[in-house]
Amino acid sequence: MTKPYVFITRKLSKETIQPLMEVADVHMWNEEENAVPREVLLKEAEKADALLTMLSEKVDKELLDAAPKLKVIANLAVGFDNIDVKYANQKGIAICNTPDVLTDTTADLTFALLLATARRIVEAAEFVKKGQWKSWSPLLLAGYDVHHKTIGIVGMGKIGEAVAKRARGFEMNILYHNRSRNMEAEEHTGASYTSFDELIETSDFIVCLTPLTAETLGMFTRESFKKMKKSAVFVNVSRGPVVDEEALYHALVDGEIAAAGLDVFVQEPVDEKHPLLTLPNVVALPHIGSSSKETRKNMMELCCKNIELVLCGQQPKTLVNKDWGLSVK
Ligand code: DGY
Q1: Distance 138 CA to ligand 1 centre (A)
Q2: Could you confirm whether 22 is annotated as catalytic?
Q3: Which tens digit of pLDDT belongs to each residue from 70-119?
Q4: CATH of the domain at 115
Q5: Catalytic: 148?
Q6: pTM, whole model, 2 decimals?
Q7: For 185, which of 156, 192, 303, 328 is 20 to 30 Å away at the CA?
Q8: Whether residue 170 is found in the same domain as residue 297
């Protein structure tokens, strides 16, 4: 009997895919740094029973229609805004993501970015390396305190809660805004629920962790930044399009807020000439929220396991379209 065909859109280690190779004919785009060209992906999709995708691949109607045999998509991310979930669901395709395994790693990065931005770590490190350190002076590269300040978390899911736990260690006052109240997070972290406006007006650190949806698209507008404190630090580890980048640029240049730490951008990879990258009060990272060696390995293994389970007729561990299975082909 021929084994089901699996296509992986980026190079993963042999050791990671080994268990999947026992049940499937596994092919992959053999490059670590460059994304699979769209035309190659469309061709592979024609044969595929399963796809293991990155968040950089657009899994849209065109791709789904090109894949008549497709049973499962495992996306190497907790976010799945790159996938047309509704259409895939109509086609009876299981969609899996990688929640939980990346929660603490992403929270660590969020806090690292917050600290780096507030305390001007990147600027300071560059200053030393460029030989600009001529004398000690009282206000040399002075940043903002983090401890005992107010943090406002927009999007209190699992990562938001893990960030709140870290904020407790810094004895911060924790506010959050979410679609609905998260009583468990309130109990575990002492966070208080507020309206979006109250959060942005009163927080010293505004941390965006919300998923990208039709509701959150462009939610940080010119008006939002105007409402923030002039000393506010804005941190985005969710998705770029949640923010109007032009509005953020003006807020930073006009002194409406103090600084921004950005792990994500509207267009990724971000153009090196992007106006935000020219500002000294911006710390920019290349979307590395969950990128630790341990966590990326766990995410890859979870994706492979989910594919294996579906191909063997079982329920995957982390399903996005929860009613899948009722409508399996
Ligand atoms: C995710 O998992 O959605 C993250 O953005 C990847 O780092």
Answers
A1: 39
A2: no
A3: 999 999 999 999 999 999 999 999 999 999 999 999 999 999 999 999 99
A4: 3.40.50.720
A5: no
A6: 0.96
A7: 303
A8: no
